[in-house]
Every structure is written in structure tokens, then in C-alpha cells.
Amino acid sequence: MNTCLTAIKVSSQSNSLIIQHDILKTLLYFDIFNYPLHLEEIVNYSHFSSDEIQEELLNLSSNHWLYKINNFYSLEKEDSFVLKRVEENSRAKKMIKKASIFSRFISQFPFVRGVFISGSLSKGSFEKGDDIDYFIVTSPNRLWLARTILIFYKKVFLLNSKKYFCINYLMSTNALEIAEKNRFTATEFVTLIPMFGDSVYQDLQEKNTWILKYFPNYNIKNIPKVLKNTWLKQFLEFLFQGKLGARLDEKFMKITKKHQYKKFEELKKNDFEVAFKGDKNTSKHHPNNYQTKVVEALNNKIKKFNKKYSLEIPLES
Fold first, then answer.
1. Residue 64 sits in which domain range?
2. In 3-state terms, what secondary structure has residue 221?
3. What does pTM read for this prediction?
4. Are 274 and 302 members of one domain?
């Protein structure tokens, strides 16, 4: 009987530790951005129930491994981080209205099939100087044509301003599975805000079930609106639906890739391929190679935290 009770106790302690590691890894990730989290957010980024998370948050707080400030949880006892987040959240609520207007506008460009808000704004945060980032889905074999038209509009009519019109990631409807599968890309995926393209959003969910490995509790957003295409969009798609459109798409892809290779030749080959992933159905433009930097920053934080508290929180691959 005593052996059985001891086994149950050990099992309970082991499960408690797993939950704590899950919570701490989430907080360490957002600590990179000095961004404390609500309970609901921690649950959404975890593998466990709200009750289990709450219980372990109390244990972690009592050990002073994390702190509860107002309704936020943080690894740092810094009121300034909470105040900063509240300000960013307030600014994001105002900015989302402008993003909605631009999303509607982007949806009417030829061969655009889905528009999503990504980046910091998709997480409810917006600092002064931030850009509004968009993740765009296009028709197959017309991605580079659509991208070129969008970039042309930005350079000519917006004087190359990225503030409300940052187009840095495009995929086509026949290549919706995200190739890089890690905590960074999973976080970016689950925080996407769908603006236009109902069937596209559903297809994205179906093609990226791998994110459940990271965030099985995440909430699927409301299905976005469906807009009737303008006569101009219909005309341009008709004009470029044949061989002319195919040739232009191929040409614009080659021109863009050549320009990227030349402009960012200092990047290592592996880093370049992650930052500027580009093929017939994908276009990523992340010159700062943010994905690699965030994953490296997270692992550095995990190592320091493990050493400080004699823990074994697993690193991210």
C-alpha cells in the first residue's frame, strides 16, 4: 500500500513539474519581448487545462519563479512591463481599425485569395514605430505577379512606406503548409487574425495540424468576411490568366530573387533560405531573420533559467 501511495505521489510531482515547465517556457518566450501574459493567454499557449495551469501558477508564484502583477504573469517583478503592455494593447485597438481598411483594400488586388494580420498587431500589441504586417494567400502560379503589383502600389502610391502596408509573407492556395515547424512559426500561426478569405482560413487549419504539438488549446478565430470582387480585379485576373500571366509571374520571381541575393549577399546560405524563402508558391521577406534570432534568444533564456533554478526545461529545436 505504501509503495502504491509513493508511486502516486511521485507521478503527481512529475506531472506538476511538466506543467510548470510548460508555463515557464511560454513566459520565457514572451519575456523576450517584455510582454507579460493573462491567465487565458497562458492556457491558450499550453498543453493543460485552466485549473491545472492556475494551480501551478500559484506554486510558481510562491517560489518567486514568476510574479503576478495585477492580472498579468511575468518572470520579472517589473510594473513597467505591465504598463508598457497596457499602452501597446490600447494602441493596437486603434490600429486594428486601420488594418481592417487596408485589409479590405488588399483583398481586391488581383489573385489575392486571403488576407491575414500577422506580427505584433496580431498579438494585440503595437509599439510606436511598428508596421502593420500582412500574411497574404494568392492563387496558384500567380503569387509573384500579385506580390509585384502590391509592392508597386506601395512604392508609388504610399511612397514605399511600410507602416500600414508591410507585405512580407505570401503563400499560394496549393502550398499552405508552413515548412518551418517550431515554436516561433506556431506562435505566428495561432495568432494570425483572418480578415478576408473564408475557405482559405479553413484550408490553413487543415494543412497545419502540426501546430497542435505546440498549442493544442489555441482558439480558432471567427471565419473572415467574403467580399464580392470588384470589376477591376475581375478584369485584371482575366487579362493575366493565360500564358502572359504565367510568363510575368516567372519573370518577377527571378527578378526578385536576384535582387535579394545581391542585396543580402552577406547572409549565410542557410540563414538566407530561412529569411527569404522563395519558390513558385511561397515568398518570405524577413531580412532580419527574426525567426532564427527569436528561437536562439528563447534557448538562451531557458539555459539561464535552468541554471539559476536547477531545472531541466527542454530547449527548442
1. 2-77+295-309
2. coil
3. 0.88
4. no
